[in-house]
Amino acid sequence: QVQLVESGGGLVQAGGSLRLSCAVSGRTFSTKAMNWFRQGPGKEREFVAQITWTGGSTYYDDSVKGRFTISRDTAKNTMYLQMNNLKPEDTAVYYCNLENVWGQGTQVTVSS
Fold first, then answer.
1. Distance CA 100, CA 64 (A)
2. Dist. CA 39–CA 107, nearest whole Å
3. Largest CA-CA distance found in the chain, in angstroms, rounded
4. Are 91 and 40 in contact (CB under 8 A)?
5. Rounded distance, CA 86 to CA 112, Å?
6. In the 8-state DSSP scheme, what is residue 88?
7. Which of 20, 28, 87, 89 has a beta carbon 3.0–4.6 Å from 8's, enabling a disulfide?
8. Distance of CA 63 to CAs 29, 67, 74, 90, 97, Å?
């Protein structure tokens, strides 16, 4: 049974940076791709970025391209999201996702 645990959220000023981590435990040998999603206040949950587990190919929503970088360390079974030049509209709960499994989320708040 796969479990996902996010960490690294917090409060940061606009223009600042944060790095989120998602620790993966359980059955991971068949993992194809993992995702970051976010849900802002009063908004639907939305896709942020994806990485393929073996090849490391990446995909981003246009709203974060050039500012966010998704990566993974297969030896540590951990996925990351480096977020630079943060904007107030990036404020959200960030979730990592693997197929139908979701983490508990980590709050990111960007002040203007």
1. 23
2. 10
3. 42
4. yes
5. 10
6. G
7. 20
8. 31, 9, 27, 9, 19
Q: Which of 56, 109, 61, 104 is nearest to 80 (CA)?
A: 56
Residue 85 gets which letter from DSSP? S
Predicted pLDDT of residue 28: 66
CA 106 to chain CA mean position, Å: 9
- Which residues have CB under 8 Å from 71's CB, separation 6+? 51, 56, 79, 80, 82
Give the C-alpha separation, 22 to 105, whole Å. 10
Tokens of 67: 């500012």
Q: Which of 58, 41, 45, 51 is nearest to 102 (CA)?
A: 45
Q: Are 19 and 106 in contact (CB under 8 A)?
A: no
Question: Residue with structure tokens 């791709």?
Answer: 33
In 3D space, the residue among 103, 17, 34 whose CA is nearest the CA of residue 68 turns out to be: 17
Q: Which residues pair with 102 in a beta bridge?
A: 97
